[in-house]
What we know:
By secondary structure, the protein is an alpha/beta fold. It has helices at 24-34, 40-62, 141-153, 167-174, 205-210; strands at residues 18-20, 104-105, 112-113, 129-133, 136-137, 157-162, 164-166, 181-185, 188-189, 191-192, 198-199.
Amino acid sequence: xxxxxxxxxxxxxxxxxxxxxxxxxxxxxxxxxxxxxxxxxxxxxxxxxxxxxxxxxxxxxxxxxxxxxxxxxxxxxxxxxxxxxxxxxxxxxxxxxxxxxxxxxxxxxxxxxxxxxxxxxxxxxxxxxxxxxxxxxxxxxxxxxxxxxxxxxxxxxxxxxxxxxxxxxxxxxxxxxxxxxxxxxxxxxxxxxxxxxxxxxxxxxxxxxxxxxxx
Length: 215
């Protein structure tokens, strides 16, 4: 007598520091972005609009008056003094510092590398909160390396924003520093193939963005 196959285990929930957008407009735009019929101009506009929605949701909920978790690598920074005419004491938005950690992928191992830098024990970050912009998280290696680099610089809190990610890559990035990282993503796909491509992913979105189709 044939036995029925055992049911597959239910999917495991994502880590609590991963936030997947449920915005209906974003979901509609993500579906349009997946279509191969979307041309280059529409693709660029959709990526901008999705990133704008994700960014607004992340900054609305991610920036508050609470103190970031302490980083054991550095001493706590001094608290800025409020300006006399500031209507929100303690929430002074200072000029952001733009930093670009140089990371390049290994096409064979699918792992990022950073160029060697001289040891400098006095190197510290210019801000306590950092925002990483990663359009697509595939294996999660680049995001994890950026998180590790910023943590070594002395950043106390990291917000990672991306348009789309694989479940494997998102879990890897989220687990790099659970207490100090928040990930905000427009959508999460099930898997990544042996070449490091997200499945089902966004197809030839890179070619449509940079007009490199057929090259």
